[in-house]
Design goal:
With 466 residues, the chain is of the alpha/beta class. It is 45% helix and 14% strand. Strands 3-2-1-4-5-6 form a six-stranded parallel beta sheet, with helices on both faces. A six-stranded parallel beta sheet has the order 11-10-9-12-13-14, with helices on both faces. It has a two-stranded parallel ribbon with strand order 7-8. Strand 7, helix 8 and strand 8 form a beta-alpha-beta unit. Bound molecules: nicotinamide-adenine-dinucleotide and uridine-5'-diphosphate-xylopyranose.
């Protein structure tokens, strides 16, 4: 018999847990949704009386939080209490690339997942449906099952895989109107089917049932890695062509448009850029490469690894081009970085190309002035310090963070457009030009500027893929 869900717990109040649970709370007013996290600072920010101070910037998110928080959406650090009360527990904790030991630099680090499983097993006194929301290697549910059933209090745990496909910057639209919802479960048992039905019923509050796919657990887990690998592969493919375009006089947007009109190819995810960033693509492909290697599938591993190799090459060649164009030296020159987030409409900087390009420019002793409308100054320093290539003292001496694009470009030798924030398209470029060193160079890593107009003003503009 299907259980009707009254109480949801979500472990992990991050970029996935926060927005996903806010939307579930809004669409399912009869369900109590309790989002818990061990990071007390993050939880406090989610509970900030001024809803604009919630820790994640996503268009539309603060309105939904304002509507639901304190009614049926709650944020706290009371992990055990939330587990105990819940019928259904989502695990939305981070699964970063391992930085130590076996699989270092490739495999997903599942220690946070295991900790959650052990805590659920210890606390649960009645049957629970445990939902993998985090992106996990195929067959992780098996390990979860093992831990839950061997250490639990003799209660029944049904494990479902329900990967999240939202993209940052459009998370709320993606959650409200998803292309599909994917639910993997134990389709061979009545209990498994009932658990899947319970989760289908949650989503069916707002998603048409035809768009809710149910599969076996392994297909669901693997589909998430596959989707990210395919999406990232398209970007590396068009970025590979961007370099060919630059050498031949072809224009990469024209090529993308021409191929994208072929309905078999499709037009999305063909925007050439300085390289993809974000917390998912690189991590998930490396994880896929690791899985393929452990299965002895060397050719499969090499095939997907090339997507990352090309992406690293794209970031590196963008930085090298700046140095080469500025007469082979940027030492002591001021480079304005417009944008630090890995894409527009998010404050997330994980794996942002801006970090790697800046690191390269720091190697060349450039002075860097950063402006990003949503990223905090300390985050920018933390991102550079994390790489460990330059001392904190050097980073703080050479990198300055300012509060407008105009300020960043004042007295600059060159500007690098790193994030496609809309406001960069409509800056007073003539005024910026007046206040720069000449020749005034612009490097557009996002293809958002109009080459002819910029050249008319006097800029020497370099657009990736032109
Ligand atoms: P995140 O780092 O923003 O959030 C994870 C949160 O989990 C952190 O706040 C952390 O403190 C908390 N946490 C870790 N261990 C915990 C524990 N034992 N108990 C309580 N809280 C704990 O990560 P995210 O971006 O939300 O990603 C979460 C998962 O979702 C990852 O597997 C990721 O691959 C996947 N995913 C992310 C996106 C995205 O756009 N960010 C999209 C789809 C899937
Ligand atoms: C991605 C997936 O799209 C999403 O389905 C999954 O759940 C999480 O990972 P996200 O990383 O948030 O989402 O953003 P996405 O829009 O995919 O962009 C990733 C990176 O690729 C960004 O740096 C973006 O600027 C870049 N990109 C994207 C391109 O360079 N060109 C494109 O055509 C599209």
């Amino acid at each position: 018999m299907t259980k009707s869900i009254k109480n949801i717990c979500c472990i992990g109040a991050g970029y996935v847990g926060g927005p996903t649970m806010a939307v579930i709370a809004q669409k399912c007013p009869e369900i109590k949704v309790h989002v818990v996290d061990i990071n007390a600072e993050r939880v406090a920010a989610w509970n900030d009386p001024n809803v604009e101070n919630i820790p994640i910037y996503e268009p539309g998110l603060s309105d939904i939080v304002a509507e639901t928080r304190g009614k049926n959406l709650f944020f706290s650090t009371k992990v055990e209490e939330a587990i105990d009360e819940a019928d259904m527990i989502f695990i939305s904790v981070n699964t970063p690339t391992k930085t130590y030991g076996m699989g270092k630099g490739m495999a997903a680090d599942l220690k946070f997942i295991e900790l959650c499983a052990r805590q659920i097993a210890r606390v649960a006194k009645d049957d629970k449906i445990v939902v993998e929301k985090s992106t996990l290697p195929v067959r992780t549910a098996e390990a979860l099952q093992d831990i839950l059933h061997n250490t639990g209090n003799d209660v029944d745990f049904q494990i479902l895989s329900n990967p999240e496909f939202l993209a940052e910057g459009t998370a709320i639209d993606d959650l409200l109107d998803p292309d599909r919802i994917l639910i993997g479960g134990d389709i061979d048992t009545d209990k498994g089917q009932a658990a899947m039905k319970a989760l289908v019923d949650v989503y069916a509050h707002w998603v048409p049932e035809a768009q809710i796919l149910t599969t076996n657990v392994w297909s669901s887990e693997l589909s998430k890695l596959t989707a990210n690998a395919f999406l990232a592969q398209r970007i590396s493919s068009i970025n590979a062509m961007s370099e060919v375009c630059e050498r031949t006089g072809a224009n990469v947007d024209e090529v993308a448009r021409a191929i994208g009109m072929d309905s078999r190819i499709g037009s999305k995810f063909l925007k050439s850029s300085v390289g993809f960033g974000g917390s998912c693509f690189q991590k998930d492909i490396l994880n896929l490469v690791y899985i393929a290697k452990t299965l002895g599938l060397e050719e499969v591993a090499d095939y997907w690894e090339q997507v990352i190799i090309l992406n690293d090459h794209q970031k590196r060649r963008f930085a090298k081009n700046i140095v080469k164009t500025l007469y082979n030296t940027v030492s002591g020159k001021q480079i304005a970085m417009l944008g630090w987030a890995f894409k527009k409409d998010t404050n997330d900087t994980r794996e942002s190309a801006a970090i790697y390009v800046s690191d390269h420019l720091l190697n060349e002793q450039a002075d860097i002035i950063v402006y990003d409308p949503k990223v905090k100054t300390e985050q920018i320093y933390a991102d550079l310090e994390y790489l460990g290539h330059h001392s904190s003292e050097e980073i703080r001496r050479r990198v300055k963070v300012v509060s407008s694009a105009k300020e960043a470009c004042h007295n600059a030798h060159a500007i690098a457009v790193m994030t496609e924030w809309d406001e960069f398209k409509t800056l007073d470029w003539a005024d910026i030009y007046e206040k720069m060193y000449k020749p005034a160079f612009v490097f557009d890593g996002r293809r958002i500027l109009d080459q002819l107009k910029m050249e008319e003003i006097g800029f020497k503009i370099n657009i990736i893929g032109n």
